[in-house]
Amino acid sequence: MIVVPFLICVPLILSGVLMFVKSEKIQSWLAYVGAVVMATAVGVLGYGRILGGFAPIELYYETEIADRVIFAAEIVMMLVVTYLCFKYDKKPVCLLSVIPTVVIAITEFGFNGHETAHIYIDRLAMLMCLIIGVIGGLIIVYAVGYMSGYHMHHKEVEDRRGYFIALLFFFMGAMFGFVLSSSLIWLFFFWECTSICSFLLIGYTRTEEAVNNSFRALWMNLLGGLVLSLGIFYFAFYVGTLSFRDFIQAGIDGNIYAILPIAAMAFAALTKSAQLPFSTWLLGAMVAPTPSSALLHSATMVKAGIYVLFRLAPAMNGTTTGDMIALIGGFTFFVSSMMAIAQSDAKRVLAMSTVSNLGLMVACAGSGTPETIWAGVFLMIFHAVSKSLLFLDVGATENTLHSRDIEDMHGMLYFLPMLSVFMFIGIAGMFLAPFGMLISKWAALRAAIDGKNVALLLFIVFGSATTSFYWSKWMGKLICHPHAEHSHIKDITRLNETVSMGIQAVLMIVLCVAFPFLSKIFVDPLLDEMFGTSGEVLSQGLLYMLVIIICFVFAVPPITYYYSRRIHSNIKLAYMGGINTGDNSSFVDSMGEEKMLWLSNYYFANRIGIRKIMLPCQLFAAAIIIIMFCIILGVTL
Amino acid sequence: MRNSIISVAAYLLLAPVIGGLLDGIDRKISARMQRRVGPPLLQPFYDVSKLLKKQVISVTNAQTFLLMSYMIFILLTGAMFFAGTDILLCMFVLSTAAMFLYFAATVTGSPYSTIGASRELIQTIAYEPAVLMSCVGFYLVDGSFEISKIASSQISSIMYLPGVFAAFVFILTIKMRKSPFDISTSHHAHQEIVKGVTSEMGARNLAIFTVTEWYENVFLMGVVGLFIVNKDPISIAVAVAVIFAVFFLEILIDNTSARMKQYEMLKLSWTITLVLAGCNIWVLMLMIK
Q1: From A549's CA, which of A15, A58, A276, A368 has a CA 20 to 30 Å away?
Q2: Nearest CA in chain A to B138
Q3: pLDDT for res A436
C-alpha cells in the first residue's frame, strides 16, 4: 500500500518544489503532471480497493519517525502563524494556534496506551479521496490557465502564482492525509494544515480586505481546532486511546467519556464547514482568486467538516449532540438560502448556496440514520462536482465579461454559449429533477419525518422552496434575450480551463444517469460498513420511476426543440404598449426620447440581505451551540 | 399494473375535457356572480380550437419548445399521480414543470412577460412549502409516499390532516393564479402587467398554455380528492363532491377579493402553512409516537 504515503507526501513535496521554481513554464508543467499523477494515484488506490473487494484496511501501527516529523511540522506551523499574527497586528489570534499545539503535545507525550493503526481506508475514505483527487486535480489544471489571465488583469497584485499553485497542492496533500488518518493526533495535524492553508490562500492578494478576511477565516477555524484538541485531550486522558475508530465506537457504545469529545469534534466540524454562526469566513474567502474559492468550497476544506460529521453520525444518532447539530444544519440550510436570494454577485450566490447545501448535509449527519447518511453522501458527491464546475465557470465568465454580477449575465447564452451551457449543467445539477440533489432532498425529508424532527422538517420544506427560487432566477437570466449589442464580447477562456470544465460537466451528467447504480454498488455497502445493517434506501419501484424521469428530462427539451424548429412562426416585436423603437431593446419614454429597456431580477436585499439577517441568525445559532454544550456538560459532569 | 395504465390513459385523454368543462363552469358561475349571462359552457373549447387554427406568432422561437416542455412535464406529473407512484417525486416533477413555464415567459425579454415570470417564481415559493407539507402529512398517516397506498387507506387522510388540507386549499388559489393571488398574470389584459406570464403567448402557444392549465387543474383536484379517498368505493363519490365544493370556493374567492401585494401573499401563505399544516403535522408526530 505504498500508494497511501504517496498520496499524502507527493503533493506536499511538490508544493515545496513549486515554492522555489521561478520559471513559469516549469511551474505549469509541474502542475499538470502533478494533477495527472495525483488523479492516477487515486485511480490506482481505487483499483486496488476494488480488487480487494473494498474490505477496510488498517495500516501503520508503528510510526515513530512520522510522528516526530508531524510534531516538528506542527511546531513550524505554530511559529508561522504566530509570526504572521504579529506581522499583521492580530496578536490574540496566535493564542488559538499556540494553545492547541501545547495541548496536543501534552496528549502525545503523556500518552502511554497501546499503538493503533494510523491509517484506515474504507469506502467513505475512498470516496473522499476520489473527490479530492479528481476535482482537486481538475481545479489545479484550471488554475494554471486562470492565474495567467488573472495577473494580466490585476497588475496591482504581486505575481506569486508558483506560491499559489504550491498552496493548492499542499491543500490536496493535507486533505488526503486528513481523510485517511485514523489516529486522532494525525487527524488534528492535518486539520490544522487545512486551516492554515486556507488562511494563506485567502490572503493571497495581500490587500487590506484580503488580510482581514483571511484572519477571520483563521481564527474561526483555529477556534474549531482548539476545541477539537481539548476534546482529544479529554478523550485520551479518560479512555486511554488515540484511535479515531475507538473514539467513534465509544460514542456508539454510549461511553460517558465520549459524549463531550464528540460534541467538541462536531463543533470543530461546524467551524470548518462554515455553518452558522461561522458562515462569514467562507463569504470572506471570496476575495481570493477563483480556483481557491472552488477548492475551498467544493472539493476540500468544507468537505472536511462534513466528512468528520459523517464519521461521527452513528455515534450522534439520537443524542443531544446529534439533535442540536441537525438543528443548526437545518437552520443554516434555510436562512442561508434566503440570503442567497438577496445576492446578485454570482460568487456570493455560490458561497451562500454552499453554506446552505452544507447545512443540509450537516442536518443529514446530525440525524445519523442510514437514510440520512445515504442522502448526505449523494449531496456531497453532487455538490462537489457541480459547485466546482460553477465556480470555475463564474471565474472564466468574469475574465471575459469583467464582471461577475448575475445581472450582467443577461442573455449570456447568446454571447458566451459554451460557458452558459456549462453553467446551466452546473445549476441543474444543484436542484432540478432528477438530479441527485433532489433525490437526496427526498431522502432527507423522509428521514426527518421518521426521526419525528419537526423543526428540521420545516427547515427542509421551506428551505427547498427558497433554494429553487435563486437558482431558477439565475437560469432565467442566462436564457433571456440580450439587452444590448454584444458582438464585441469575445470568449477568452483558455483551452485548459475549457478542458477542466468540460470534464466536470460530463462527469455531472454521468453521475445523474448512473447514480441509481452508484447507490447500489457503492453507497449502500458504505452504509453497511458504517452502521452494520444492510438494506437499500431506494426501493426498486422508485428506481424505475427515477430512470423514467431521467429519460424524460434528458429527452423532452431536445425533442420539443427539434420539433418546434419545423414550425413556421411569425416573429413579432414584444409588447411594450406600442412604443417600441423598432426592436426589443428600447422604447420611447414620456418625454419622447429613446430609452433602453433594462430588465432585472428581484433580490429583496432590504428584507433578507446578509446585512439584515446575518447577525440575528448567528446569534440564534450560537445560542443553540451554547445550550448544547450546557446540556452536555450537565450530563457528563 | 393494468389499473394504473388505464387510469393514466384516462387522465391523458379525459383531463383536457374535464379541465375545459371546469373552466367553462368557472366562467359561467363567475358571470352569474357578476350578474352577467356569461359564455356558453363549451366556450373554452371554442376558444382553444380557434387559437389552434391561427398562424403561429411569437417573440422568439425558443418559447415554443419551452412551453411544450412545460406541457409534457405537467402531463408527466399527472401521469405519475394517477399511476399511483411516489407523491413527493410527483411534486418535484411539478416544480420542474413550473420552471419551464418561467423560462418560457422570461426567454422573450419582453418587460411584461418578464415581470410576470418573476412574480410566478414568487408564487412558486409561496405555495411549495404547503405542497411538500401535504406529502409529509400523507406519509405520516399512511406510512408511505406511494399514492396507490394513500388512496387505499383505512380511513380518509383528511381525518388526520384537517390543517394540512386547509393549507393546501389555501395555496390552491395561488397555484391556480386566482384573485387575490393573480399576481403573475390576470384574467384581463388591461391591468398593470398586461397578462403577465402569458403576455407574449399567442395563437397556438396560448392554446398549449391553456390546455396545460387544464391538465394541471385536474391533477390538483386529484390531490384534493386524495385527501378524501379511502379503500371504500363510496369515498370516491364523496371526493368528487368535495372537489366541486373546493372548486366553487375558489371561484367565490376569486370573485370577491382584490389583488394582494406579493409580500403579503408570501407572508400570509407561509404563516398559514406554518400554523395550520405545521401544527397539524407536529400533533400527528406526537400522537404517532
Answers
A1: A368
A2: A449
A3: 54
CB pairs under 8 A between A and B: 170
Shortest alpha-carbon distance between residue A475 and chain B (Å)? 8
Cis amide leading into A289 (omega within 30): no
Q: Looking at the domain assignment, is residue A207 inside a domain?
A: no
Q: Do B129 and A545 touch (CB under 8 A)?
A: no
Q: Which of A266-270, A456-460, B178-182 has the lowest mean pLDDT?
A: B178-182
**Strand-pair category, B57-58 with A570-571:** parallel
Q: Do the Cβ atoms of A479 and B107 come within 8 Å?
A: yes
What is the DSSP secondary structure assignment for residue A480, as one 8-state letter?
A: S
Closest C-alpha among B158, B140, B155 to residue B87: B140
| ipTM rounded to 2 decimals | 0.92
Distance CA(A65)–CA(A429), nearest Å, equals: 45
Domain carrying residue A532: 318-564+608-637
In A575-634, the residues whose Cβ lies within 8 Å of chain B are 575-576, 584, 597, 599, 601-602, 607
**Residue in B64, B72, B92 to test binding to A, most A beta-carbons within 10 Å:** B92
Contact A229, A311 (CB under 8 A): no
- Are B72 and A411 in contact (CB < 8 Å)? no
Contact B121 A561 (CB under 8 A): no
Is the CB of residue A160 less than 8 Å away from at least one CB of chain B? no
- Say if the Cβ atoms of A476 and B102 lie within 8 Å: yes
Cα torsion A426, A431, A433, A437 to 10°: value is 100
Sequence-distant (6+) residues with CB within 8 A of B88 are A442, A445, B132, B135, B139, B145
B95 within 8 A of B175, measured Cβ to Cβ: no
Place of cell 443540509: A360
What residues pair up with A594 in beta bridges, in sequence order? A588
Q: Which residues pair with A243 in a beta bridge?
A: A183
Place of cell 398549449: B208
Residues of chain A positioned with their CB less than 8 A from the CB of B72 = 552, 556, 560
Tell if the CB–CB gap between B69 and A556 is shorter than 8 Å.
yes
Set of chain B residues whose Cβ sits within 8 Å of the Cβ of A474: none
In a domain, A330, yes or no: yes
Q: Assign B70 a pLDDT band (cuts: 50, 70, 90).
A: very high
Q: What does the pLDDT average to over B34-63?
A: 90
Q: How far apart are CA A66 and CA A2, in angstroms?
A: 15
Residue A465 is assigned to a structural domain of this protein? yes
CA B33 to chain A, closest CA, distance in angstroms equals: 32
Query: CB-CB: which of B57, B88, B274 is closest to A570?
Result: B57
> What is the pTM assigned to this prediction?
0.92
Task: Give the pLDDT mean for A14-41.
Answer: 87
Chain B contacts of A549, Cβ < 8 Å? 76, 89, 93
User: Which residues of chain B are within 8 Å of residue A411 when distances are taken between CB atoms?
Assistant: 109
Residue A299 has pLDDT above 70, yes or no: no
Q: What is the mean pLDDT of residues A558-562?
A: 87
Residue B285 distance to chain A (closest CA, Å): 6
Give a yes or no: residue A367 inside a domain: yes
- Number of structural domains chain A divides into: 1
**In B, which residues are within 8 Å of A599 by CB distance?**
109, 111, 114
Say how many Å lie between the first and final Cα of chain B, rounded.
34
The residue type found at A119 is I
